[in-house]
UniProtKB/TrEMBL annotation:
Pfam families in the record: HIRAN, zf-PARP
Keyword Zinc-finger: yes
Lineage: Eukaryota, Fungi, Dikarya, Basidiomycota, Agaricomycotina
Species for this entry: Hermanssonia centrifuga
UniProt protein name: PARP-type domain-containing protein
Gene3D superfamilies in the record: 3.30.70.2330, Zinc finger, PARP-type
Low complexity bias locations: 114-125
UniProt keyword annotations, A-Z: Hydrolase, Metal-binding, Nucleus, Zinc, Zinc-finger
GO MF annotation: an example: DNA binding
Amino acid sequence: MATAHMLEYSKSSKATCHGPPPCKGSAIDLGVLRYGQVTFGPYGETVEWRHWGCVTAEILTKLASTQLERVPGFRNLRSEDQNKIRIAVGLRRVDPVDVPESAKRIVAGLNNGASSSTSAAPAPTQKKRKATFDAQPGPSQPRATQGPSASQLVEDDEIEEIVPEEESRDELYVMLKTNIVGVQYYKGLVGPGEEVRLVREPTNKYDKNAIKVENIGRTQVGHIPRQIAVKLSPLMDRNQVTVEGVMHEGNCRGHSLLFSIIL
């Protein structure tokens, strides 16, 4: 399946990072710069998001073979973030400053554990030798069994802590590009890149599966097409999906608008 790229600021904190452990599965906060790997399959598009700081050298190499200005969302980024991305693509590595704290926590813990265990290693050895010299078991004394040392227990705990949690099932976003219809009948205005709300309208006398589209001011812009609403409305009624919409063009011209539905 073909893949593509997306760059944007996170529109919510619902998406989780698909980067390598330990950050994998952690939340991507609202407004954070994120990278999306888009996969085109037989059922539409899926996007796997990750913090920009979790982008790998392999992904940067793929970005280097594309024109960044043509990557969706790149032109909407602030100039300083555009420059940051260009530098990272050129060097094939992201700036360490951009690595999120959720990707650093286990590495820092291992480093601290290694240094403390190294500095404390001579003391148990000396104590063990002294105990062996002072308390040699006699003929009538049973030989004591040596239990696990404190440092071994600490190391075992650290190994257990770095096992990544199982990834939740709702981390993938499914994107579907479609039109907003009936915009000539409503007063709501939207521009390219703006978010819109998709609201069920079961009382619509023309279509019980109707889903209306509203701008951020809750003014109706139009409806999504019926063939999509008939499949999406049952999922929305059962609260099985969270639906978001992002505009690809404004309604200053024409009678239909292109936008993306994100599940």
